[in-house]
Amino acid sequence: MPYESALLQLAGWRGKAVTSLYLDVDGRSYPRPSDYEPHVEHLFRLARKRAEPLGKSVVEALEADLARISGWLEAGLDRKSTRGIAVFSCAAEGLFETFSLPLVIRDQVAVASTPDIAQLAAALAASEQALVVAIDNQRSRLLRLELGEVEEREAPIDQIERRVDTDVELGSFEHRHEELAAEHYRRVARAVAQELEERPAKHLVLSGTQEAVSRLEGYLSQRALAIVSGRIRLPLRSLPAELAHAAREVVREAEHRRKVVLIQELRERVGQRAGAVAGLAATLESLGARRVRTLVVEDGFEAEGGRCAECGQLLAKRAACPRCGSATLGVSDVVGAAISEALAYLVELEFCEAGELVDLGHIGALERR
After folding, report:
1. Which residue of 22, 54, 173, 354 has the lowest C-beta tally within 10 Å?
2. Which element (helix H / strand E) includes 306?
3. Is the pLDDT of residue 4 over 80?
């Protein structure tokens, strides 16, 4: 995805004071910019309140950030495709990263030493990231589904000659017809492989008759077959929106099944004490020790905590660091900080709906074995 590299850079950013702001600008709720401006003012007031206890230098840095954010907003947004924005600013150190998203997000602001990328990471993780392949014996279509948008890509089309247009004998014609159809499926399989190489996807959805889809699967690479999430049966001439709607249902069901299995594995391994932890304190300790393979968090879960001033260990409570004994600094949202660290450490991130991990303390991790 085009956002991934920027997200990873943000995950590794450390500064004296970084302002992170999320704003819902969905035109269906706020037809005019003046409709969401009061929300901007509210977030600015909240940011100033949170910066005050951090000292005069942080307050001054925040004002510079708010001025930059205001200027960017006043320059205007393309709200035909933008429903939510995320902005990360540290004017003193040259950071100013903006994201215009076709997704609804919740208003939020944070002032901390690291960008609060938790909501952005959750939004990107929840996007479909799917490739739809529609096919018959002569034609094909490729559609990208990402962040609620549909993009049709170039796909192979092969015109196979008709029997009435040739003098070839019947048996030879049927053999030739079969060979041309087989080459068509091979070409589509190569196009799918190239598309996935250029822009990886989480899901592959195949559309067509049972025979056509089965023939295509016979030529797909192992990489492509591994992400096939299901099939749909719509006419090849269907509108992009129709194909996208049906494919999203397939993806939604596949993701639900996968999350059920993941959460069940987490519960079982926590209960057996077999390479998994649950709860904020245990998860932060495992993350700091670099044992975490997959971090599992409820979307929207936040908690105050601390960070060791010396070794950087994140803590569920602001107390002396159990690792090195040093004093700790307050962290307004230690869950968001943990998500940033997970991204920086290249840990897998999984987000669940609110309430799905309540019995596990809203957060947990599968550890490396």
Report:
1. 354
2. strand 305-308
3. no
Helix (H, G, I), strand (E, B) or coil at 124: helix
Fold of 130-256: Nucleotidyltransferase; domain 5 (3.30.420)
Give the architecture (CATH level 2) of 4-126: 2-Layer Sandwich (3.30)
The reported pTM is: 0.80
- Residue spans of the domains in the chain: they are 4-126, 130-256, 275-367
Is residue 14 over pLDDT 70?
yes
The sign one gets for the Cα dihedral 99, 105, 110, 116 is negative
CA distance 167 to 163: 8
Site of tokens 């904020």: 280
At 92 the three-state DSSP class reads helix
What are the DSSP calls for 51-65, one per residue? HGGG-HHHHHHHHHH
User: In which band, very low, low, confident or very high, does the pLDDT at 332 lie, cut at 50, 70 and 90?
Assistant: confident
**To 10 degrees, the CA torsion angle through 289, 294, 300, 304?**
-10
Q: Find all residues with CB under 8 Å of 53, minimum gap 6, and list them.
A: none
Q: Is 171 helix (H, G, I), strand (E, B) or coil?
A: helix
Q: What is the mean pLDDT of the chain?
A: 90
* Cβ–Cβ under 8 Å, residues 95 and 87: no
In angstroms, rounded to a whole number, what is the distance separating the alpha carbons of residues 73 and 21?
Answer: 12
* Residue 75 near residue 48 (C-beta atoms within 8 A): no
Please compute Rg for the chain using Cα positions: 25
CA dihedral 288, 2, 243, 127 (to 10 degrees): 30
Token pair in block for residue 218 = 């016979």
SS3 (DSSP) at 136: coil
pLDDT given at position 170:
47
Backbone angles phi, psi at 364, to 5 degrees: -165, 180
Is the pLDDT score of 1 beyond 50?
A: no
**What class is the 275-367 domain?**
alpha beta
> What phi, psi does 334 have (nearest 5°)?
-75, -20
